């Protein structure tokens, strides 16, 4: 049995498809099938039921999948520890980032990290806060970078940067013409929201509850870009991270509302499992994140 066989098997199980696994592994489909047959011959068991559309894992296959994941993890740890002893920074980091961080903060941090650590492969998944945390809990991701509060006892949370939330409105909106907007003026407005599970949505919900605001109508978008475009087109008002609208504010396509001269702040946080066992590559990335403020002064 080889490490390659196990890695290919795990990929097929997770992709639930031979063609997708082959493409991901940069192998031919017949080559992938051969590796799986070798494993089945070695264990004298059927590991997968094949069909044209999907792969179904047998009970024996489920046992091997769990053990294969463990063996691959131990192999990668051993390899990384040996590289660490030689001061070689290598390996793969799987990062999950919520949309605001993934689109506006992480690229700049990753650019410098990649220049300093060329032997490290970084895989980034951009999803909403709730999804990132769930994938940290299931060990699908190594590090999570999320916005807003995290109420989950299964993970460790370390704030690393402040984020200012602002109210925005179409440039021709009545409220956009005022120097100061009183909270009661926000009653019965049309609002543009992010989807449930988003850190931005959670902050907006708390803001609405705090001010006891009634909503005339609302629209939901799954990205900050969608919200910006909707507000710019006059669809309604929204609360959003200042990071996401700097260009639009400068261009004047949307306006910032001054709510009683208040400043609304939340935190960006690093999320990790409680016993991560990080490699040197991971540790250096975390150091980069902890010093993020200096990149954006």
Automatic annotation (TrEMBL):
Pfam families, per database record: HTH_1, LysR_substrate
Every HTH lysR-type domain range: 1-58
InterPro entries: LysR-like_Sec_metab, LysR_HTH_N, LysR_subst-bd, WH-like_DNA-bd_sf, WH_DNA-bd_sf
Keywords: DNA-binding, Transcription, Transcription regulation
Domain of life: Bacteria
Database matches in NCBIfam families: LysR_Sec_metab (NF040786)
Family: Belongs to the LysR transcriptional regulatory family.
Protein name: Selenium metabolism-associated LysR family transcriptional regulator
Lineage, top ranks: Bacteria, Bacillati, Bacillota, Bacilli, Bacillales
């Amino acid at each position: 049995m080889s490490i390659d066989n196990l890695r290919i098997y795990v990929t097929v199980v997770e992709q639930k498809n031979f063609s997708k696994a082959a493409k991901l592994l940069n192998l031919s489909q017949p080559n992938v099938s051969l590796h799986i047959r070798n494993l089945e011959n070695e264990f004298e068991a059927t590991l997968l039921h094949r069909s044209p559309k999907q792969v179904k894992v047998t009970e024996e296959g489920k046992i091997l999948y769990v053990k294969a994941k463990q063996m691959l993890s131990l192999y990668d740890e051993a390899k990384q520890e040996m590289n660490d002893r030689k001061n070689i920074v290598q390996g793969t980091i799987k990062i999950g980032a919520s949309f605001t961080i993934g689109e506006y903060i992480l690229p700049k941090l990753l650019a410098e990290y990649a220049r300093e650590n060329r032997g490290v492969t970084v895989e980034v998944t951009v999803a909403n806060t709730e999804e990132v945390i769930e994938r940290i809990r299931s060990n699908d991701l190594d590090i999570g970078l999320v916005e807003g509060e995290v109420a989950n006892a299964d993970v460790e949370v370390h704030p690393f940067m402040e984020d200012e939330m602002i109210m925005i409105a179409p440039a021709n909106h009545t409220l956009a013409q005022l120097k100061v907007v009183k909270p009661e003026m926000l009653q019965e407005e049309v609002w543009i929201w992010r989807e449930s599970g988003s850190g931005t949505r959670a902050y907006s919900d708390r803001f609405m509850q705090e001010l006891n605001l009634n909503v005339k109508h609302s629209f939901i978008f799954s990205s900050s870009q969608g919200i910006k475009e909707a507000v710019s087109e006059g669809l309604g008002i929204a609360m959003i991270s200042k990071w996401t609208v700097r260009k639009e504010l400068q261009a004047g396509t949307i306006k910032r509302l001054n709510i009683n001269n208040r400043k609304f702040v939340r935190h960006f946080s690093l999320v990790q499992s409680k016993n991560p066992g990080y490699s040197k590559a991971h540790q250096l990335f975390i150091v980069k994140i902890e010093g993020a403020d200096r990149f954006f002064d």
